[in-house]
Amino acid sequence: MADPALVPDDQTPKDKLLVVDDDAALLAELKLLLQMSGYDVAIATNGRDALDLASKLHPDLIILDVRMPPPDGREVLRRLRQEKNNWTPVILLTVVGTPAERALSLHEGADDYLNKPFDRVELLARVEAVLRRAQHSRPPLSSFRRLISGDLILDRQARQVSLSGKTLVLTPRSVNVLEYLMLHPQEIITRERLLEQVWGWAQSIEVETRVVDNLIARLRKELEDDARQPHFIHTVTSQGYCFIADVEGQT
Amino acid sequence: MRRLLNGSLGQTLRSNLTLFMSAIQRYGTILLASSLPFIMGIGAVALLRPNERSNVFIYQENLAIFSFWSGFLGGTLFSLIIVGIWVMRKQAERVRYDEQQAATAAKQRLLRNLDHELRTPLTTIGLSVENLKQATHFTAEQGTSLDSIAQQVRRLQTLIKGLQHLTEQEESMLEKTSVDLSEVLQEAVEIAKSAPAYCGRSIALDVRQFPWPLPSVWGDHDCLVVVFRNLLDNALKFSKDDRVQVRAWQEGRTAVVEIADTGSGILPEDLPYIFEELYRGKNARHTPGSGLGLASAQRLVALHGGTISVDSRLDQGTVMTIRLPLALKK
């Protein structure tokens, strides 16, 4: 069953993960799953231990539950980034709440988010993608104000996009989609994930993935991107979309 | 005194004064009619006063004074009663509205808490099953049992996500623009028809565009597509081999959309509850569904300032009527 692409071969040193959750049962399952998938796993059951272990063990990635007794996941992330200047990649485990919370999530400097309930495949894909993207000691793209890819500039604070110096007229939702894609360059993003992260529509029977395609089509038109020979947004057949150009961050 | 006026007493006075003023505005005609005797009294006095020395006129003057006072008192009393009844009804309405709002908020809170509390255990069960399957070899029967646990977990996860979807639908999630309803309906019809289960079914779409097109509504295009697709899905699901019709037209400052099917209809005792979360009609139990679709549709339509209502006859069919306010012209 195990996807060979997701399991690192024996020659490469194992990536070290720190998993933090106050729910002992979930923590045990996560540890087992990640160990079986070839990672070296350390665990912490509260925010304070997490901060200690993050400094001591120098993990390659931290998986951090948001809902914990204080200091909660968000607080741990903030202290890690601001007080300790520690840029170890972080995946937050969230129970995505109100739209306000969701907007906050996109801006607080985590490398990625995973909404409970998630499954094994989702978790491993996300871990793999973040590890691949992580450039150590360099802050993640989500900590920058501007995302730049060639002529394309997305100002995350002003919520503005410009192409070759010309400001594009985009709806807030299109800006959010482009932002999400640019924050995860070279990663296949499924329509369901975009709906969940950007539209805020949880995966359920009501979800309509075609609305994603319509928005991407409009976005491509604005970006003057040809779907057949794209510079920016590539369609991965029956999987989703991928931002294929390089992205740099600028404060 | 000022504190008192700023406090709850002041608030009560002020709100009652506002109600009083709006009552006067609304019931101006009734007020005028009820004070007609009063006005007639004044008129009579004004007419008769110059001749007050004459005996005949003294009698008539008394009559005038009598009619003046009776008109004045009667008119005032009548208008006060009318206004009083109106104010009381308004206040009862407001109390009912507040209670309704509180009940809705409490229900939303309950659903949200339930949703949050179920998430972690569900994630844990799901991962446990997958870990078991990865680590150990099972007999075919044991494998089937594990698969059925995994399947039921997935089913619960879908339900949880549906609940989340429902509790989180807020105004701020919508991106409202001027939306062409006929485009929305066309898209929804295409999507609904393209589902493998409904392949070959026909949906007749009739948007009244002549002599002028159906004006736009103010709303979230994507969200409205989801609403209508859901309703169409229901219509197709509950009418096996019959046709489904979608009709849309303008009615004053409202766009009306009807989705009609010739299906099995809804039992009269189910009708009042079909928009409730997780409610499933008695004759819908053996048809797959989450029980969240209609609740979600109603909530999304309400976020657009619209309403949704249902008319159904057993074994004849069902008509869902959606009313959406038209976009104001700029």
Brief rundown of the structure:
The complex is a heterodimer of chains A (251) and B (330). Chain A is an alpha/beta fold and 251 residues long.
Most extensive interface, chain pair and sizes: A-B, 39 and 43 residues
Quaternary structure of the protein? heterodimer
Overall pLDDT score of chain A: 82
Arrangement of strands in the largest sheet of chain B = 2-4-5-7-6
Number of strands of chain A: 12
The amount of helix of chain B comes to 55-70%
Apparent shape of chain B: elongated
What is the share of helical residues of chain A? Answer: 25-40%
Number of domains of chain B: 2
Q: Which runs of chain A of at least 5 residues are low in confidence (pLDDT < 50)?
A: 1-6
* Mean pLDDT value of chain B: 80
Radius of gyration of chain A: 18 Å
- Beta percentage of chain B is 5-15%
* Main sheet properties of chain B: 5 strands, mixed
User: What are the secondary-structure elements of chain A, in order, as H or E?
Assistant: EHEHEHEHEHEEEEHHHEEE
Taken in chain order, the helices and strands of chain B follow as HHHHHHEHEEHEEHEE
Task: Report, as a whole number of angstroms, the end-to-end distance of chain B.
Answer: 47 Å
Structure description:
The complex is a heterodimer of chains A (251) and B (330). With 251 residues, chain A is of the alpha/beta class. Chain A is built from eight helices and twelve strands. In chain A, the strands form three sheets. Chain A has a five-stranded parallel β-sheet with strand order 2-1-3-4-5, sandwiched between helices. The longest helix of chain A is centred in the middle third of the chain and has 14 residues, at 120-133. Chain A is globular. Chain B has 330 residues and is α+β, with helices and mostly antiparallel strands. Chain B has two domains: 1-168, no CATH class; 175-325, 2-Layer Sandwich (Heat Shock Protein 90). Helices cover 59% and strands 13% of the residues of chain B. Chain B is built from nine helices and seven strands. Chain B has helices at 2-6, 8-26, 28-34, 36-48, 55-135, 140-168, 181-194, 221-237, 293-303, and strands spanning 177-179, 203-207, 217-219, 244-251, 254-261, 307-313, 317-325. In chain B, the strands form two sheets. In chain B, strands 2-4-5-7-6 form a five-stranded mixed β-sheet, covered by helices on one side. In chain B, strands 1-3 form a two-stranded antiparallel sheet. Chain B is elongated and about 115 Å long.
